[in-house]
Design brief:
CATH architecture of the largest domain in chain B: Orthogonal Bundle
Radius of gyration of chain B: 35 Å
Strand content of chain A: 15-25%
Number of domains of chain B: 5
Number of strands of chain B: 6
Number of domains of chain A: 2
CATH superfamily of the largest domain in chain B: Cytochrome c-like domain
Oligomer: heterodimer
Strand content of chain B: under 5%
CATH topology of the largest domain in chain B: Cytochrome Bc1 Complex, Chain D, domain 2
Structural class of chain A: alpha+beta
Structural class of chain B: mainly alpha
Largest sheet of chain B: 2 strands, antiparallel
Largest interface: A-B, 54 and 50 residues
Number of helices of chain B: 34
CATH architecture of the largest domain in chain A: Sandwich
CATH class of the largest domain in chain B: Mainly Alpha
Shape of chain B: flat
Distance between the termini of chain B: 136 Å
């Protein structure tokens, strides 16, 4: 029975690979009229969105030639890990040398490395790596709480809608992406400083305690979010194996 | 002879099976094989295969013994049975590691750990959120739609819809669902499609499509023509969909709407004065800014960014749309033309009205109406226009003289999330799944037939997904679940204050920004307990001339140019009616606190509680920009409010971002004493 399944599986694999080799069908229909030597990201990278959902802003890449001028009609193909989908998956750049695609990230929370490819006149492949972050339920809760409570001080960037308080503070808070600092703190440290404020870890009292405002699960969500957006990425300490 | 005849004429039995002994052997073997089929099928079943793979996977892990113990506690086919929810799930038969925290690094299915969510597997099972066929024990039957099953797994991008089956209130963790529900109301979907909620109420639209009864007073036939051809060409943020009408149809509809319009007394004002007053664009722009028009209205800037609020219509090209004489009358008092408008009745003076009319009238786009040339309408065109207006259901959203709002103009969507696939006509090449159908229908309704009436909405991909999510939540289960198992939405409040103050509050459209007793917007603070919170002289002065409490905010309370008597009327009403039952606002004095206590409060403010991270008391040293400036808090708030707010901010103002400090009584009293000494300088007050 298993072998039967295996043959079926193998057969479907062959079929699939055949389908995959045929996949650049639509792309093959697109005849590039221009060729560039460089691929740059215009916008849409470093976005944060929920797992499996279309990111708020499209991913826009631009093809340039050696002089750095935009190339129209160059063929760009997008690819990413399993579960990521692009709409469209490939296309020709417009008059301003740009191609825009809507990205939906996969079903697992984490960082997704996406890539865009174009080829030069000499058929040499040029690749651009872009990273976007997918939030699971827990990180999503953290993200929403960050927007409401934390980002006003922890995010130095000001917009007309949300003026940052970062510059007004005597002791500067750490932006959540600041992995060099935050990755060294354990989950227990973060829980303590969020729940009891800066003084809990001997830090500034300008960081107020949120333990009476946020629930335990909300604080866990916030930490999961902070861990996910940290740059360089956060790696939890591995399991400690004791002798059997 | 006998034997000869027998051997020459073998019986049928012998021809088939030969010697009886051999026949016996063959039949026994067949019987044995047939008896073995059932156990063999069981032995080689898919789920056993996965369980074996799981055991192989955990074997080499550090905590193998623990994982194995968990596994052998319940091996074999697993089932979660929740009769109340109608759940029979055998998913955990193959998805063995769902509850194993130590499998965090395993990404191969079906062995992944389930990410953290607020519900447990044992309480809700799997299909409540993921759909699919719970009782099935093969991969194909559990996940895909087959001949016998038609409930495939829900793609991850719509999974929030499942939360919406039970939760009618917005949740922090489901922004997509919240957005989708918001869009169903905001884009007016529920004008045409009825959506009944489990509590018996009907989903209400939150857009406010204008009445077209007096449209000829407001705008021209040319503008209507351009607008109907492409609403987003006039305003990128317009929620009006594109009906993809042909040129003659648009010509006829615009002819009908203008011919059908009746004049309304007082909704236009002569423009002669506008010309008399020197049009000063700079003065007009600054009045527009001072009146905080941008809190509600957006304008597209040169870079193409839309800047401003979305309560009122976008004004980028308003000069192309409205007639100056109508705009004058509208700015003077919008309630003459539309009694229910969200626009406040600013008491502008005539020169101010002229300034704003001139400023807004200059917001035009020469391309918009350049190619619109219409001949005078013929009676046939007008009659055809009326037919089209009826056919397209324009009256579902707009009031139109002589045309009744049609009932159930479009299919009801109350149970769209459970629509059987057999009832759906899929397009060639489309995935045969409900989410794909709904999304395609929203993305391009007319792709399902050019004769369909549903118009083309201008939506971003994320908005389409959000709408699909909200619609997928409208399942049979969402309607039929016992009430005790659902979290119903808060009933809509139709609170209306009484008397002259109530009329004033409607006239000033306070509810467009402020909420009181559950009714109103969320742009500005909730005023339900405002009377306990503020001091009377401050409120009176603020209503006359609102100062800035939060300098970082771009949306602020505008100045309505209230008369003394109106301001006093409103102040008295607010002070009397909007009081909390929790405490008496006069229970603590506004001044006269012992200096020692004040000093202690100051220490607490700057050291223990570090309030200066968000608030300013001393403008020279403090820089906190998040909370309101507290330089005059002693003349603004009552001491009792400050004290109770410090003790428990979330109870006094639900949803405030001020963290609760679990403050003890002594600290709260000292801080109150300190804050009450911050009276501001009378001179500054007068200057503003």
């Amino acid at each position: 029975m298993i072998s039967h399944w295996r043959t079926l599986f193998a057969f479907s694999l062959i079929l699939l690979s055949a389908a995959c080799t045929n996949k650049p069908g639509p792309a093959a229909n697109l005849k590039p009229t221009g060729f560039g030597t460089a691929l740059i990201e215009s916008s849409g990278g470093k976005q944060i969105g929920p797992t499996g959902m279309v990111l708020a802003d499209p991913l826009v890449v631009q093809v340039n030639d050696e002089q750095g001028t935009a190339v129209a009609g160059a063929l760009v193909e997008f690819s990413g890990p399993a579960g990521v989908s692009f709409d469209p998956e490939s296309g020709l750049t417009d008059a301003s040398g740009q191609l825009s695609t809507n990205v939906a990230l996969g079903g697992m929370a984490g960082r997704y490395q996406l890539s865009a490819r174009t080829s030069t006149k000499a058929q040499k492949s040029v690749e651009l790596k872009i990273e976007d972050i997918a939030l699971g339920y827990q990180q999503q809760v953290g993200f929403q709480l960050d927007k409401k409570y934390c980002s006003r001080c922890h995010n130095p960037e000001s917009t007309p809608e949300r003026v940052s308080n970062y510059d007004n503070l005597e002791v500067k808070p750490h932006p959540f992406a600041e992995g060099d600092t935050l990755n060294k703190m354990t989950d227990a440290d973060l829980t303590a400083i969020i729940s009891h404020g800066g003084p809990a870890l001997g830090k500034s009292a300008l960081m107020p305690p949120y333990g009476y405002t946020l629930s335990k699960t909300e604080i866990e969500g916030l930490i999961a979010y902070i861990r996910l957006v940290s740059d360089p990425p956060y790696h939890a300490a591995g399991m400690v194996y004791a002798q059997k | 002879m006998q034997s000869q005849s027998q051997s020459s004429k073998p019986s049928l039995w012998q021809t088939l099976f030969g010697e009886p002994v051999r026949a016996f052997g063959v039949v026994s073997l067949l019987l044995l094989i047939s008896l073995a089929i059932a156990p063999a099928k069981n032995h080689f079943s898919e789920w056993r295969h996965y369980q074996k793979k799981y055991l192989a996977l955990i074997q080499s892990r550090g905590d193998a013994l623990t994982l194995q113990r968990h596994f052998y506690q319940h091996d074999g086919i697993q089932q979660i049975w929740l009769p109340q929810l109608g759940v029979v799930d055998r998913c955990t038969t193959c998805h063995v590691g769902l509850k194993e925290a130590s499998l965090a690094d395993v990404s191969a299915q079906p062995f992944r750990r389930h990410p953290a969510i607020p519900h447990t597997l044992d309480q809700f099972g799997c299909v409540m959120c993921h759909r699919g066929q719970g009782p099935a024990t093969t991969v194909e039957e559990a996940h895909s739609s087959t001949l016998a099953w038609e409930q495939p797994i829900l793609p991850a991008r719509y999974v929030q819809s499942s939360c919406g089956q039970c939760h009618r209130t917005p949740l922090t963790g489901t922004p997509q669902l919240n957005l989708g529900r918001n869009l169903l109301s905001r884009y007016g979907c529920v004008h045409c499609h009825t959506i009944k909620l489990p509590d018996g109420s009907v989903m209400k639209p939150t857009d406010d499509p204008p009445s077209l009864e007096h449209i000829a007073d407001k705008t021209t036939r040319e503008w209507i023509y351009a607008w109907l051809k492409d609403p987003q060409a006039y305003a990128v943020t317009a929620t009006m969909p594109n009906f993809k009408l042909s040129d003659p149809d648009v010509r006829d509809i615009s002819a009908f709407l203008i011919a059908n319009s009746t004049p309304l007394a007082g909704d236009t004002a002569p423009v002669a004065e506008t010309r008399a007053a020197a049009p000063d664009p700079a003065a007009g722009a600054s009045l527009y800014g001072e009146s905080f028009c941008a809190s509600c209205h957006a304008v597209q800037n040169a870079a193409g960014n839309v800047v401003g609020g979305d309560v009122g219509p976008e004004l980028t090209r308003v000069g192309n749309k409205v007639k100056p004489e109508w705009l004058r009358a509208w700015l003077r008092n919008p309630r003459v033309y539309d009694s229910g408008t969200a626009m406040p009745h600013y008491r502008f003076t005539d020169p101010q009205v002229s300034l704003l009319t001139g400023f807004l009238g200059s917001k035009t786009d020469s391309d918009l109406l350049a190619n619109v040339h219409l001949d005078a309408a013929t009676p046939e065109q007008i009659a055809h226009g009326k037919l089209l207006v009826t056919e397209y259901g324009c009256a579902s959203c707009h009031e139109i003289n002589g045309i009744k709002k049609p009932d159930n103009f479009a299919p009801e969507l109350t149970r769209i999330g459970s629509k059987p696939l057999t009832q759906i006509l899929f397009l060639p090449g489309m995935t045969h799944a409900l989410p794909d159908y709904i999304a395609a229908k929203i993305r391009q309704p007319r792709s399902f037939g050019a004769a369909l009436k549903m118009p083309q909405f201008s939506l971003a991909p994320a908005q389409i997904d959000a709408l699909t999510t909200a619609l997928l939540a409208l399942t049979d289960r969402s309607q039929d679940l016992p009430r005790a198992l659902t979290v119903p939405s808060k009933p809509a409040s139709n609170y209306q204050p009484a008397g002259k103050a109530g009329q004033l509050m409607s006239d000033l459209a306070c509810f467009s920004c402020h909420a009181i007793n559950g009714r109103g917007g969320d742009m500005a603070p909730d005023l339900t307990w405002e009377g306990s919170s503020v001091q009377r002289p401050w409120l009176l002065a603020f209503l006359k001339n609102p100062g800035t409490l939060r300098p970082a905010l771009i949306r602020r309370m505008p100045r309505f140019n209230l008369s003394d008597s109106d301001a006093a009327e409103l102040t008295d009403y607010i002070m009397t009616v909007y009081q909390t039952p929790a405490f008496d606002r006069d229970s603590m004095p506004t001044s006269g606190y012992p200096p020692a206590q004040v000093e202690q409060g100051k220490q607490l403010f700057y050291s223990k509680y570090a309030c200066q991270s968000c608030h300013i008391v001393d403008t020279k040293t403090d820089k906190g920009y998040i909370g309101p400036t507290l330089t005059q808090v002693g003349s603004r708030l009552t001491a009792a409010w400050i004290y109770h707010y410090l003790r428990d901010p979330q109870t006094m103002r639900p949803g405030t971002i001020e963290p609760s400090r679990n403050m003890n009584d002594e600290d709260a009293r000292a801080l109150t004493a300190f804050l009450m000494t911050q009276k501001g300088s009378g001179k500054q007050e007068a200057k503003k």
